[in-house]
Amino acid sequence: MTRPPLVMTCGEPAGIGPELAVRARAILGAAVPFVWLGDPRHLPSGTRWTEVAVPEAAQGVPPDHLPVLPHRFAAPVTPGQPEPANAIGVIEVIARAVDLVQSGAASAIVTAPLHKKVLKDGAGFAFPGHTEYLAHLAGDVPVVMMLASPLLRVVPATIHIPLADVPAALTAALLEQVIRLTHAGLIRDFGIAAPRIAVAGLNPHAGEGGAMGWEDAAVIAPVVARLAAEGMAVTGPLPADTMFHPRARARYDAAVCAYHDQALIPIKTLDFDGGVNVTLGLPFVRTSPDHGTAFDIAGKGVALPDSLVAACRMAWDMAASRLR
User: What are the extents of the domains in the chain?
Assistant: First the structure.
């Protein structure tokens, strides 16, 4: 039985999302089918596209055409110049994509980058970003953000908060939830039967027995010990500065990190163009390229499609894993 295609949201239409969708289609062709959900007026001039009424119809579109599921926006756009009037359309597209994937009309969602300030200014968007809005649409389920590539998978336990707020935010309950969601996601979405998870310490040298901070011994270690006693292959807290060289990475399937930069610096160093943002915990598969709207280069034809292509391939593989 043929699986339905992915649905790719347009994201911020004045950013690089529309042009990268066209380039991703040219690279992926029929190997990873997707339908682009957005306003065709926002595609680069000269784009060859075919309107489809349902995602399934994308399978019959010529490989040199972009299959488009049209969604009318309030205004046209100029690349690099966001139009707040289009914010409502961006939000509607995300919700429509969720409806498509939950109904079975699409295999997974790949989201192009959005711009949070434009959404706030134009529509009073109350969510910090894609991840939180998708979790809300799915029924306010708990989720975690994973950054993944063939070289490394990382999950930050705390994300977009000041570094000074991390120690208080990194509670035992939060850390346990993040590890459990990571463990379940590795099984369900990546097909790893017995995942190995490494947990980074918060402080230098993982606290060095309390000499460099108490949180590692008092908060992180008991959570790791409790989950290990349940049979989970989890280790830590480990010194973060020795977790990401090749021999260390071979010992685990994902690293759970204490804060944003501790997780994102290593993966962006190892695979800046190929990293993929994955939301674990949703009842459907969602991936996204690990970059922003890049207004400064939008419309210039220089943006690299690597991360979006990787996001499509990963979403396609993850959706297949859920069917096994």
Answer: 1-140+282-324, 151-270
CATH topology match: 1-140+282-324 vs 151-270: yes
**pLDDT tens profile 133-159:** 999 999 999 999 999 999 999 999 998
- 148-196 pLDDT, tens digit per residue, is 999 999 999 998 889 999 999 999 999 999 999 999 999 999 999 999 9
> DSSP E strands: which ranges in the chain?
6-9, 34-38, 49-51, 66-70, 109-111, 144-149, 152-156, 196-200, 233-238, 254-257, 276-280, 286-289
Q: How far apart are CA 111 and CA 263, in angstroms?
A: 21
Q: Is 208 helix (H, G, I), strand (E, B) or coil?
A: helix
Residues of the chain with pLDDT under 70: 1
Instruction: Identify the pLDDT of residue 129.
Output: 84
- Give this prediction's pTM: 0.94
Closest CA relative to residue 20, chosen from 36, 4, 5:
36
Report domain 1-140+282-324's class: alpha beta
Q: How far is CA 248 from CA 152, 240, 254, 270, 322, in A?
A: 11, 11, 11, 14, 28
Residue 148 identity (one-letter amino acid): A
Distance from C-alpha of 97 to C-alpha of 68, rounded to nearest angstrom = 13
Give the integer Cα–Cα distance in Å for 269 and 285.
26
User: What's the CATH class of domain 151-270?
Assistant: alpha beta
Amino acid type, 190: F
Is 92 in contact with 10 (CB distance < 8 Å)?
no
Return binding residues for substrate.
130-131, 268, 277, 286
Q: Give the residue numbers of the binding site.
A: 130-131, 160, 205, 260, 268, 277, 286
Q: Residues 143-157, buried b or exposed e (16+ Cβ, 10 A)? A: bbbbbbbeebbbbbb
- Feature table: binding site for a divalent metal cation: 160, 205, 260
Read off the amino acid at residue 132: E
CA dist., res. 182 & res. 223, Å (int)? 14
